[in-house]
Design the sequence.
């Protein structure tokens, strides 16, 4: 695989929590804009969806990490298998992340003889090096089937779900650059779309009522399940700016401000809370590359 990386190595991983549905419903930012306008904007910019483009950040100067999975094994000098073991309805395991044909495949399936016994298995990887600010981008196809969902996100090694640590996000947050949970959506308007979310301040004592904000549900102009699309985040000293196929989709400094500490970069095919599927069911997330730019 081709890769570039620089900076100091920092470890740490904590399980992420889902946003409170009540708060999520109350704080969706301009859903009508997301449904009516973003589709047109992203569709117009599809020409920019190439392996060589950057979303136009004039302040980002240096490519500090790039992996296009051009090999036959995951490069464990820079990646680690994250959250191996029990998670929601099943397990994460190393066996579910496979590099071949110039892609990384994260596969969710039922295994009778899995590492932790019979059950549903999926894959999650993260970079061993944490990053403070910059531009983060993935090019991928989302899993097309029900239940499981594709995600690209960053999370602080300190616990962003403890308000005493996070302090409203400035000492750590979870930033969902994208999550695609719409493959089996009942409403057609919700299919072929992604959400972008900021989680901070914690669940234990949400005294400021700022635990999370979903910035919108963005309906992408082309097929997110069968075509490659790019999802990016520019993290500056002042705000988070989100991109789909090189077009800005949202920006926010939700909470008490942006994170001021290095964060872990994560790619995952998420396990649902329950999986009432036939045992021959499987689904995959296909990743072409991950890259990071910094000043």
Sequence:
């Amino acid at each position: 695989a081709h890769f570039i990386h620089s900076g100091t190595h920092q470890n740490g991983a904590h399980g992420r929590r889902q946003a409170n549905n009540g708060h999520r419903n109350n704080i969706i930012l301009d859903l009508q804009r997301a449904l009516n306008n973003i589709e047109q904007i992203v569709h117009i910019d599809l020409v920019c969806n190439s392996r060589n483009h950057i979303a136009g950040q004039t302040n980002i100067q240096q490519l500090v990490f790039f992996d296009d999975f051009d090999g036959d094994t995951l490069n464990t000098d820079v990646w680690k298998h994250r959250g191996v073991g029990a998670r929601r309805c099943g397990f994460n395991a190393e066996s579910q992340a496979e590099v071949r044909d110039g892609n990384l495949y994260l596969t969710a399936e039922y295994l009778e003889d899995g590492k932790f016994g019979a059950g549903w298995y999926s894959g999650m990887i993260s970079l061993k090096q944490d990053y403070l600010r910059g531009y983060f981008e993935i090019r991928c196809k989302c899993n097309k089937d029900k239940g499981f969902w594709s995600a690209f996100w960053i999370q602080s090694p300190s616990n962003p779900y403890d308000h005493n640590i996070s302090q409203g996000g400035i000492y750590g947050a979870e930033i969902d650059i994208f999550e695609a949970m719409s493959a089996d959506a009942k409403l057609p308007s919700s299919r072929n779309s992604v959400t972008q979310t900021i989680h901070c301040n914690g669940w234990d004592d949400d005294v400021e009522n700022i635990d999370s904000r979903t910035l919108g549900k963005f309906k992408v102009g082309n097929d997110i399940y069968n075509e490659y699309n790019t999802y990016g985040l520019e993290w500056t000293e002042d705000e988070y700016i989100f991109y789909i196929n090189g077009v800005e989709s949202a920006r926010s400094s939700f909470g008490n401000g942006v994170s001021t500490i290095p964060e872990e970069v994560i790619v995952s095919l998420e396990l649902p809370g329950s999986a009432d599927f036939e045992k021959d069911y499987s689904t995959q997330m296909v990743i072409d590359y991950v890259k990071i730019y910094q000043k």
Remarks:
- The two ends are 24 Å apart (CA to CA).
- Residues 1-50 have pLDDT under 50 and may be disordered.
- The chain has four helices and 18 strands.
- The longest strand covers residues 282-294.
